[in-house]
């Protein structure tokens, strides 16, 4: 009997000891949180803003976003709900304001935008005033732009819709590739100086 009772008591003690130690906080918990997991960003920030400069010290772009993630291994930066200002490479003047649902900039300085994209010219005299689409790629070195999606462009005196776009923000040129429809506003065209011309086929 004593042997059976001892075994039962040992079993109870073992169960209670196991329960007690399971309730204690792990000493490794804090350290595990500090260890970077594979594929996770090196830096994250909420509601942050940053300005990126080139090697000559001129601003390339300004970014304000709800969430920013930086991945050093791939030299990639992700933005959630970004607002970006793109600068003229030579004059360092703000030329375009960009908003989207998401954005990503890679090590080649290629900006990929996704969702509710709006590019607004900050120069009121720019021939090309606005671009709206759902996906867009912008080369921040050359300011070339590209998309295969449906696009709406607004300029001085015209609105154009179509599918697919190739253009250059610096040169204020946007060529739609398919299903192109252009709406001209003659009153705006007439108000322009006689020596100013807008290429409505673009």
TrEMBL record:
<dbReference type="GO" id="GO:0015221">
    <property type="term" value="F:lipopolysaccharide transmembrane transporter activity"/>
</dbReference>
<comment type="function">
    <text>Required for the translocation of lipopolysaccharide (LPS) from the inner membrane to the outer membrane.</text>
</comment>
<comment type="similarity">
    <text>Belongs to the LptC family.</text>
</comment>
<dbReference type="GO" id="GO:0043165">
    <property type="term" value="P:Gram-negative-bacterium-type cell outer membrane assembly"/>
</dbReference>
<keyword id="KW-1133">Transmembrane helix</keyword>
<dbReference type="GO" id="GO:0017089">
    <property type="term" value="F:glycolipid transfer activity"/>
</dbReference>
<comment type="function">
    <text>Involved in the assembly of lipopolysaccharide (LPS). Required for the translocation of LPS from the inner membrane to the outer membrane. Facilitates the transfer of LPS from the inner membrane to the periplasmic protein LptA. Could be a docking site for LptA.</text>
</comment>
<keyword id="KW-0472">Membrane</keyword>
<keyword id="KW-0812">Transmembrane</keyword>
<keyword id="KW-1003">Cell membrane</keyword>
<comment type="subunit">
    <text>Component of the lipopolysaccharide transport and assembly complex. Interacts with LptA and the LptBFG transporter complex.</text>
</comment>
<protein>
    <recommendedName>
        <fullName>Lipopolysaccharide export system protein LptC</fullName>
    </recommendedName>
</protein>
<dbReference type="InterPro" id="IPR010664">
    <property type="entry name" value="LipoPS_assembly_LptC-rel"/>
</dbReference>
<dbReference type="GO" id="GO:0030288">
    <property type="term" value="C:outer membrane-bounded periplasmic space"/>
</dbReference>
<dbReference type="InterPro" id="IPR052363">
    <property type="entry name" value="LPS_export_LptC"/>
</dbReference>
<dbReference type="GO" id="GO:0005886">
    <property type="term" value="C:plasma membrane"/>
</dbReference>
<keyword id="KW-0997">Cell inner membrane</keyword>
<dbReference type="InterPro" id="IPR026265">
    <property type="entry name" value="LptC"/>
</dbReference>
<dbReference type="Pfam" id="PF06835">
    <property type="entry name" value="LptC"/>
</dbReference>
């Amino acid at each position: 009997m004593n042997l059976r009772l001892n075994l039962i008591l040992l079993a109870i003690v073992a169960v209670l000891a196991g329960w007690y130690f399971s309730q204690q906080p792990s000493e490794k918990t804090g350290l595990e949180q500090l260890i970077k997991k594979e594929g996770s960003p090196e830096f994250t920030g909420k509601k942050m803003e940053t300005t990126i400069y080139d090697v000559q010290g001129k601003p390339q772009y300004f970014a304000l976003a709800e969430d920013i993630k930086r991945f050093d291994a791939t030299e990639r930066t992700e933005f959630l709900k970004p607002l970006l200002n793109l600068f003229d490479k030579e004059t360092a003047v703000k030329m375009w304001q960009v908003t989207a649902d998401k954005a990503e900039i890679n090590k080649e300085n290629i900006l990929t935008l996704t969702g509710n994209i709006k590019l607004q010219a900050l120069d009121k005299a720019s021939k090309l005033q606005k671009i709206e689409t759902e996906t867009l790629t912008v080369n921040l070195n050359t300011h070339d732009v590209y998309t295969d999606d449906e696009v709406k462009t607004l300029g001085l005196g015209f609105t154009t819709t179509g599918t697919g776009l190739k253009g250059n923000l610096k040169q204020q040129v946007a060529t739609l590739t398919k299903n192109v429809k252009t709406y001209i506003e003659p009153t705006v065209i007439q108000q322009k100086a006689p020596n100013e011309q807008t290429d409505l086929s673009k």
